[in-house]
Amino acid sequence: MKTFAKTLVSATALAVAGTLGPLVAVSQADDMPEMHDPHAHHHMMQMPETTRRMAEYTVPNVELVREDGKSVALQDELNDGRPVVLNFIYTTCTAICPLVSQTLSQLQRKLGDERDQVHLVSISIDPEEDTPARLAAYAKKYGAGPEWQHYTGTLAASVEAQRAFGAYRGDKMNHTPVTFLRAAPGKPWIRIEGFATANELVEEIRNMLPSS
After folding, report:
1. I need a surface site. Which of 20, 37, 54, 67 has the fewest CB within 10 A?
2. For 165-199, how does the pLDDT look when each residue is reduced to its tens digit (9 = 90+)?
3. Which domain holds residue 147?
4. Is 161 helix (H, G, I), strand (E, B) or coil?
């Protein structure tokens, strides 16, 4: 009953503010996880509508650690020639991250045989807690295939990566849903702010893949 009351209050507040549309869009996500995060209401109230724009970013020369425990250079990971879909997450997040990770899980399924032509990248913004083992468990939870990899590392490396993509918000509780896509090294990035759907991402990616 308490959860329902909080949801009703949040929905009412958003309706008054004229922003009920984004809430409805989020509620229609497939298998949307139940939100128990005490900061979930804060996230929902601060969420912008989905926007898409082109942007130029320089991938920083930082070393991260994959969920398999291997140390890698972020530049090498992103510059393997495949289109990239990148986001920032942390494993103990229970509001935004389950939704964006679920979207990438759906994206894998929708890509079908094309999935191995795309590199999905999730970088932890809480590397002090997100060990490779914890990221591996998180990846398994969302059915991540070999084309979807999760990265941790030092706090400094994580912050540098976030800053490079204009995604650093200081406290992890202040993070917002942002997805970055790029067709190939040297190409501009597409920045999608808000909860992009798997169908939207599939359309973007298929425009990047060579015509069969």
Report:
1. 54
2. 999 999 888 889 999 999 999 999 999 999 999 99
3. 51-205
4. helix
